[in-house]
Write a structure and sequence with these properties.
The protein has about 350 residues and is α/β, with parallel strands linked by helices. The protein folds into two domains: about 100 residues, Winged helix-like DNA-binding domain superfamily/Winged helix DNA-binding domain (Arc Repressor Mutant, subunit A, Orthogonal Bundle), CATH 1.10.10.10; about 190 residues, Rossmann fold (3-Layer(aba) Sandwich), CATH 3.40.50. The strands form two sheets. The chain has a seven-stranded mixed sheet, with helices on both faces. A three-stranded antiparallel sheet has the order 1-3-2. α1 runs antiparallel to α4. The longest helix has 25 residues. The structure holds S-adenosylmethionine. S-adenosylmethionine binds next to α6 and β5.
């Protein structure tokens, strides 16, 4: 008979294990972990979600952080709490994984879900308000960070490598002033563009009229509420960092990708330029590459090719392709030859 001989641990490993047990030993902390499963929130937001005082929630977050279960991410002056990634070879890994698996099976009570929706609505309102105020200065604001001309060629190379047929459809989420629409209109039989800002949509409409884009349908809609029937290619160009809950948004937008189709995402890599929140209405200061890949996987998408472009102003852009698996007998675009992926400054 095979007997597993436990590895002897150091004395301070016992403290780590105790911290983990302590963190899991409170119903509210378990709910905090559940809420942070695919989202991140600030202390005040969590206090609102759990309807308790700031000092109370701070105490619980401290206990969770001491157990290595939550970590912080700084977004300008604000600090957001998220689930910590497991340490590569940390002690307590089995207990931690089991605890989180049980936590993820918890159903959140309706009042908590309602207050999460309230927090998301408050964040979304900040973003909507920004675009309604800033439409006339939109291009100048975009150029502060990354204008489309700086990465257009790379993005189109990635798109063209996906080899869509002449009958394929595209859905652009948040087209802004529509700078990408002429390129999409050339490549797809039908393009739908959803934007929730009337002012931005008007700019896109003017561009479509100017360029005679007859296969583009513009819709004033919140992309997360709209029941669009789906497209072969869903494009998010510099939009995700304006969404209140990006992981959840990615999940909903992945549902809009037809089986065998693609989601093409252009985003800023993580940065620490806090002024972008004020100047460009960004809710999130870019995203980690791994974080996007994890959210895409949770949304049922498979990773494809990626391109990274470094800009002279220090920002880095990631262009990511994610594929939706085909259903049995479904179509899937021919795999693209891997483009080179240098961090080429432009
Ligand atoms: C930074 S602009 C990007 C515009 C364009 N894709 C580009 O790169 O030039 C973000 C756009 O997303 C839109 N947007 C933000 N949240 C949205 C939502 N929930 N549904 C639809 N559009 C949204 C904004 O109104 C804005 O036009």
């Amino acid at each position: 008979m095979n007997m597993r001989i436990p590895t002897l641990r150091r004395d301070d490993d016992c403290d780590e294990l105790a911290a983990l047990c302590k963190a899991g030993g409170d119903p509210l902390r378990l709910k905090v972990l559940r809420v942070l499963a695919s989202d991140s929130f600030g202390v005040l937001e969590l206090a609102q979600i759990f309807a308790i005082g700031q000092s109370g929630i701070s105490h619980h977050l401290k206990v969770l952080a001491q157990a290595g279960l939550v970590a912080t991410r700084r977004e300008g002056n604000a600090i957001f709490y998220r689930r910590a990634l497991p340490a590569a070879a940390g002690f307590g890994g089995v207990l931690r994984a089991a605890l989180l698996a049980e936590v993820d099976a918890l159903e959140l009570e309706a009042a908590i879900r309602a207050r999460i929706a309230e927090v998301h609505a408050q964040r979304a309102a900040v973003s909507r308000d920004f675009f309604s105020r800033m439409a006339d200065k939109f291009q100048a604001q975009q150029d502060l960070i990354a204008g489309l001309p700086q990465y257009r060629d790379s993005l189109l190379a990635l798109l063209d490598a996906l080899g869509f047929s002449g009958t394929a459809s595209a859905l652009e989420v948040g087209p802004g002033d529509g700078a990408l629409l002429p390129e999409l209109a050339r490549r797809f039989a039908q393009v739908t563009a959803l934007d929730n800002s009337p002012a931005m949509l008007e700019l896109a409409r003017l561009r479509c009229a100017r360029e005679g884009l007859e296969n583009v349908e513009l819709k004033l809609a919140d992309a997360l509420q709209d029941e669009h029937g789906g497209a072969d290619c869903v494009v998010l160009n510099m939009v995700l960092h304006h969404f209140a809950a990006p992981a959840e948004a990615l999940k909903r937008l992945a549902d809009r990708v037809k089986a065998g189709g693609s989601l093409l995402l252009t985003e800023l890599c993580r940065h620490d330029q806090a002024w972008a929140r004020e100047a460009c209405g960004d809710l999130w200061l870019g995203f980690d590459q791994d974080e996007l890949a994890r959210w895409a996987a949770e949304a049922g998408l498979e990773p494809g090719e990626s391109l990274y472009v470094g800009l002279r102003n220090g920002f880095q852009i990631q262009m990511r392709h994610f594929a939706k698996p085909p259903t049995a007998g479904g179509r899937r675009p021919a795999p693209a030859p891997a483009p080179a992926t240098p961090l080429n400054a432009v």
